[in-house]
Design brief:
Structural class of chain A: alpha/beta
Largest sheet of chain A: 5 strands, parallel
Low-confidence stretches of chain A: none
CATH architecture of the largest domain in chain A: 3-Layer(aba) Sandwich
Number of strands of chain A: 9
CATH architecture of chain B: 3-Layer(aba) Sandwich
Strand order of the largest sheet of chain A: 7-6-5-8-9
Mean pLDDT of chain B: 95
Helix content of chain B: 25-40%
Shape of chain B: globular
Order of helices and strands of chain B: EHEHEEHEEEHE
Largest interface: A-B, 24 and 22 residues
Distance between the termini of chain B: 13 Å
Helix content of chain A: 25-40%
Number of domains of chain B: 1
CATH class of the largest domain in chain A: Alpha Beta
Number of helices of chain A: 11
Distance between the termini of chain A: 9 Å
Number of strands of chain B: 8
Oligomer: heterodimer
CATH topology of the largest domain in chain A: Rossmann fold
CATH superfamily of the largest domain in chain A: Aspartate/ornithine carbamoyltransferase
CATH topology of chain B: Rossmann fold
Chain lengths: 310, 177
């Protein structure tokens, strides 16, 4: 693995290697001294053109647990807000000696551009690009599901809500499909992207029909900030048709788990009592995020990064 | 070109002897913890533990992966991690016996000692190896040795164990260059 740009690029073996490595990270960090010396002397840059709390802190913690030096670049309060281009920013970071760049950008394809344009030799990790992909989120979701359900081969996963604006949905569909799960995306027709029929999943519009045989349900955040038109009549109507509440929760099989990539709109796509119930693994996802990002950084930077060894 | 250094019976006898040596030196099983270094140190630690259990009683057995602590990580692409399993008793104030198949440069053992630092503070650490082939690059010595084998650096020592390789044998081979 040279970069992590999308889950669609990952082979099944690579995906399983990341998940297995994260499992070992869990054991290695389950002790008094959580820090490992592995990436000592490496520099990881968090380059965030979009707001983020959990992803950025999660990557920062993951890099620090592996003893890498971490630099945070965010759009607010930096030259990025003065209109510096992606290329110039990347060249600056490269000149400072970065080994990996974790990038989040509002434009789909930004991470890919950074990885392939030849501007930098750093390893690139996509931490969310527009409405395209968010591979580490999908990996941590799969990791969390695997911990509760075991092997995902043949498991049924339902992804609900704003698929149109969701990079999480796309990354999840590709990864879960690769791992052998059957994925169904459910949401209002107005929030389904063009070309959804080419995704390796089935599409439904009725949440109640999808829940009874689901092994895991991922509730997507309704991304009000990306909505430039009215996609549904009202929040109340959305919640009634596509929100997960206590009544719908009872129609799930007993072993099924509920996920949410966060941040949640409580009362919109998920009610507070469901978010806090014992079937919800939402808080666990956050902790698992650090483990999965440690695994990714280790696999990208832990070995030699010289050109000839690639 | 290869030569058998130890047969299955030789390996069995060596493990039996090391089991007794561990008990003799530590005066029993009190406070002992066996930690195998993956991969082949792990089944060896299990066999050593079984041997000790037969003569005096059970001891905690675990594994200690040293990949994250290696000093040569940057010389090769990232490697897959092996399991680290510390027994619930922990290692604080205990006598840890590290178990590995071959002792060569000593760098693996050094990495293992560094890894132990992050887990706890053992009362003492001892080292058991099936084969000591010499050529140390660090001031490290084993406490228990199955067989001392003088080798040249152009040779390689392969330990085969039934758990990982389907049969028990130690082979000395000339490295193909």
């Amino acid at each position: 693995m040279q970069h992590l740009l999308s889950t669609a690029d990952l082979t099944r073996d690579e995906a399983i290697l990341v998940l297995d490595t994260a499992e070992e990270m869990a054991r290695l960090t389950d002790r008094a001294i959580k820090k490992l010396p592995t990436l000592r002397g490496r520099t990881v840059v968090n380059l965030f053109f979009e707001d983020s709390t959990r992803t950025r802190t999660s990557f920062e913690l993951a890099a620090k647990r592996l003893s890498a030096d971490v630099i945070n670049f965010s759009a607010k309060g930096s030259s990025l807000s003065k209109g510096e281009s992606l290329k110039d920013t990347a060249l600056t970071l490269e000149a400072m000696g970065s080994d990996a760049i974790v990038v989040r950008h509002s434009a789909s394809g930004a991470a890919h551009r950074l990885a392939t344009a030849g501007w930098v030799s750093s390893r690139i990790v996509n931490a969310g690009d527009g409405t395209h992909e968010h591979p580490t989120q999908a990996l941590l979701d799969a990791f969390t599901m695997r911990r509760h359900l075991g092997d995902l081969e043949g498991r049924r996963v339902v992804i609900v809500g704003d698929v149109l604006h969701s990079r999480v949905a796309r990354s999840n569909v590709h990864l879960l499909h690769r791992l052998g799960a059957h994925v169904t995306v459910v949401g209002p027709p107005t929030l389904m992207p063009v070309g959804i029929d080419t995704w390796p999943c089935s599409v439904g519009y009725d949440l109640d029909a999808a829940l009874p045989d689901a092994d895991a349900v991922t509730m997507l955040r309704v991304q009000a900030e990306r909505m430039t038109a009215s996609y549904f009549p009202s929040a109340r109507e959305y919640a009634r048709r596509y929100g997960l509440d206590a009544v719908r929760l009872t129609t799930l099989p007993d072993h099924a788990v509920v996920l949410h990539p966060g941040p949640m709109n409580r009362g919109m796509e998920i009610t507070a009592d469901v978010a806090d119930c014992d079937r919800s693994v939402i808080v666990e996802q956050v902790g698992n995020g650090v483990l999965v990002r440690m695994a990714v950084l280790y696999l990208l930077l832990g070995g030699s990064t010289e050109e000839e060894d690639r | 070109m290869s030569r058998v250094l130890m047969s299955a019976a030789d390996i069995g006898r060596a493990v039996t002897r090391i089991g007794f040596e561990v008990l003799e030196r530590n005066r029993g099983t009190a406070g002992l913890v066996l930690l195998g270094i993956p991969r082949r140190g792990v089944p060896l630690a299990a066999r050593l533990g079984a041997q000790i259990a037969r003569s005096e009683g059970p001891v905690p057995i675990g594994s200690l992966d040293i990949t994250m602590y290696r000093d040569d990580l940057r010389l090769r692409p990232a490697r897959a991690l092996e399991p680290t399993d510390i027994p619930p008793e922990g290692i604080d104030d205990r006598t840890v016996v590290l178990v590995d198949d071959v002792l060569y440069s000593g760098r693996t053992v050094k990495s293992a000692l560094t890894a132990l630092d992050d887990i706890g503070r053992p009362a003492s650490v001892q080292l058991a190896v099936l084969v000591d082939r010499g050529h140390r690059e660090l001031p490290i010595r084993p406490d228990y040795v199955g067989k001392n084998v003088p080798t040249s650096r152009s040779e390689s020592v392969r330990v085969l164990l039934s758990e990982t390789d389907g049969r028990d044998e130690v082979v000395l081979a000339r490295r193909e260059s």
